[in-house]
Amino acid sequence: xxxxxxxxxxxxxxxxCDEPFDRQNPEAWRCSLREVSVDADPYWTTCDNCAEETSExxxxxxxxxxxxxxxxxxxxxxxxxxxxxxxxxxxxxGSGSEVIRxxxxxxxxxxxxSVDEYLGFQEEHEQQWASS
Length: 132
Prior knowledge:
Elements: E1 15-16, E2 30-31, E3 36-37, E4 45-46, E5 62-68, E6 74-80, E7 88-90, E8 99-103, E9 109-112, H1 115-125
Antiparallel strand pairs: 1-2, 2-3, 4-5, 5-6, 7-8, 8-9
């Protein structure tokens, strides 16, 4: 997969940026539907409203994140943001395994060993879908 798929912010008519598109200028990336900055690569970010003609956002923004699955096969997940913060898949130094990491409101990192663990935490702690 060369990017996060066809249904990503970078292909959505709600996505706004300076012309021509500049990958070095993320401060200029915006979602006009949600009225928020697209804080990460718009070709690796999506939502339920991608390319949908609507004036009301539904569901959270999602990070399209990749990792290595069984037998070394790449896997991609669409993980919901948590209160406007993007989750990432990282390999903590010296651990040899991948975790899902999110920055907390306090500015510290919280790691999750599985997608289900992260989704449970996200569901429990999400404040408002439309603003994320």
